[in-house]
Amino acid sequence: METHTRRTFHGTVVSDAMDKTVIVRVDSTRVHPKYKKRYTVSRKFHVHDEKNQYHPGQGVVFCETRPLSRHKRWRVVGPWEKAGKK
Hints:
There is one protein chain. The protein is mainly β. It has one domain (8-79): CATH 2.40.50.140. The chain is built from no helices and 5 strands. Strand 1 (8-15) and strand 2 form a beta hairpin.
């Protein structure tokens, strides 16, 4: 039997307007294939937050899960402590 490892990301909460759902922005850096310049790409994920405890500006770690609704395939694992933020 094969076990799957769930994908895990960390990002910043952008919106908490929905019940038990937060929108999380994940920034990643890519390099242009021809010009070799680095640039930032952002993606937004709908993440399940069972207790409604995360608010805009907070960092969260989230992982893959079964489909919970039309857009939600992710659930919050816990807070993400950004380096240097004390």
